[in-house]
Amino acid sequence: NIPALRCCSGANLLHCRSPSYLCLEHVDNLGAYTASRPETGLLIPSVSVNHGTASSESVNSLSMRSNDSRRFALLSAALLLLGSIAVAVIEKQMVRYEHPIRAIRGRVTGGGQEMRVVWVDVYDNARVSLDDSLPPVEQRKRQSKVASVEPNDKGEFSIKHLPKGFYEVEVGNHGMGGYHVLSVLVNVDPKGTNDKLCVDLSLEGGNARSTVAKCGTK
Length: 218
Fold this sequence. Notes:
Layout: E1 7-9, E2 14-16, E3 23-27, E4 33-36, E5 43-47, H1 53-87, E6 92-96, E7 104-110, E8 119-123, H2 136-141, E9 145-149, E10 156-159, E11 165-172, E12 181-188, E13 197-201, E14 211-214
Parallel strand pairs: 6-12, 7-13
Antiparallel strand pairs: 1-2, 3-4, 4-5, 7-10, 8-9, 8-11, 11-12, 13-14
């Protein structure tokens, strides 16, 4: 529709009547074109324009780096968590209270301080706990839990009316961590003493050991 530009097709070149314009010979499917200048009849090489390639590559590169950084951060966190778990191993300690007692009563502390969460679980057949040939899991299978109490705010507990026998009194916070577990082996006998057991759980990761003693004595 522009009068100044008139081109006619030839075998290889387009012949233009106006010297001030270039005539397109063809446009390929990639958007490249070939043109000829009228006064020389020379072909101008086709040019292919790749829109947005550099920008796309940059975005992909940044995305890959971001993903790599995120994976490294997650891996580091996982290794740190595993390291903490490996260090924080709860140790089960065992002691035997020599004097027969009428009831299992006393007070629980942790590192000399009151504990917010703690339980006192009583198992029968305590002799199996002394059998080193059995792993702890097998030992527990041969026992039955006969009582379980949660001490009050002051750490005090009381379990009465147990039949005469040899019991394992396990004191701990049911795997919540922070303190070691202590098993106290006691003989319950109606003719025993009225001793109260003062249990102090040692802190997890510390060198001190959990202890049990008659309340009121040091």
